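LOG
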Amino acid sequence: MARSCAHTLKRACLSAEKGERIMELRLDLHIHSERSFDGCMSLSEIVALARERGLNGVAICDHDRVLDEVPEFDDFLVIPATEVSTERGHLLGLFVREPIETRKFFESVTAIHAQGGLAVIAHPFEHSTNANRLDDVMSRLDGVEIWNSRADRKNKSANAMARELAQKWKKPVTAGSDAHVPEEVGGGVTVLEADELSLSAVKAALLRGAKQVEGRRGRAMCVARSQKTKREKTNAGVKRRVNGMLFTVKCALQDFTTREDGWHVMDR
């Protein structure tokens, strides 16, 4: 799976029928940095890991926060984004630079759109098996995250159900690792065909529709590690620390008894 960013970019330039230059881009559209309460990676570490793993760009989706500054590179794209905690679940705001102050779902969608961003429902079935629970909000959304490397840990059908939701409502799709620790970066990949490696071109390509999404399921111990980071950052009390240790044992047992199922490729 690993490939250099330069090699990926070299292969990314394809000839369209009309002689236009089209780039095939590989993007992880859901990563958390150390600015999240449960994240530990610096932005420079994320970029370096993504390059090593053959990605052309990433979206930094910290919990209820945005980047203070968005770095720019000639051969790599950092997409400013956020993950908003709402009463209807987590909502990705892609291509946003200002904080989303509200935690109300519909108000968050409006605020994302006001910045010219895309509102994408994140891991919609990670904690629910109700296939119809989002029917009343789907018309307002720009896309559905149909591959999240952490989502299937609790609901084994979470990603499959998200894909069915996107197909039902004919919505564009995304994939992301939901990485909180280095091991996870690149575990969810959105493959796009874009005119160039720029924010505007990638946004347009997402709205046209991804070529495919790819990924691998993450290990439960990665979740345990990010929860440990959260406890440390929030100065958790004794009870939370004890519960955290029990959770870590549970995650270790889950990884021990779960067979790895390789790399998944899903057509849109």
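LOG (cont.) second protein
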Amino acid sequence: MPSRFASTLILLGSVTLASCSTPPASDGSYERFMGLAADLQKRGDTVTAAGLYEKATQLPQAQLDAWLKLGETRLANGDARGAERAYQQALERQSDSAAALLGLGTAQLRQGKLDRAVTVLTQASAQPDQPQAFNRLGIAQILRGQANAAQAAFSQSLALAPNDLDTRCNLALAYALGGKPQLALDTIHSVVESARALPRHQRNALLISVLAGREKDIRTLGLDDISNAERKKLLAEAQRIQAIKDPQAQARELGLVDTH
């Protein structure tokens, strides 16, 4: 059953592509494809944008950015396998591209290729200033049942982006799964008390309280954005997850947050 804690397009009219058939390389077609695709992507039409980025990659003057953008839009369209291929092509052109490594690891993570994702995201996180890579590495590790490794990755992400409440939630969940209930509670309380806390953070606070064996403390949490009816449903879901004996199976139900 899908977890209620799982994270989370403007459709434009169809664009006629007949006039976009590949012209000679010298007439600026690459720039036109990239510019039109970028505009469509900004407006939410990632499907058409992906088609234009793919056309751009086939031109002789195609640059790294075309493959990166193709991977990005394919991910947005739910085509993780297609995104993986695009990012691999990007790495053929620049093997140390932090964006390509991050994208490839993310695509593999979404396909459940956890060992591959850990390898690639470890390489991505070794690049300067990569909090997203560390966060996604932590998600991959927790899904592999490696709570300590996940805690280390989330902590490193927070060292680079200390105000990221989503990553702080993920760290609290990793502490809860790793048998460190007090650290889990302390971490999630700092999230709930933030003026920037959103309903999804409050939902995670409820879950973590149950996982940490402190269900009785839920009434003291600031869960103002959750109705009583929803709270009851979330509590039942949290109790169901708590009853799962396999930590790795628990992790798959947790809904770790990656909103970037």
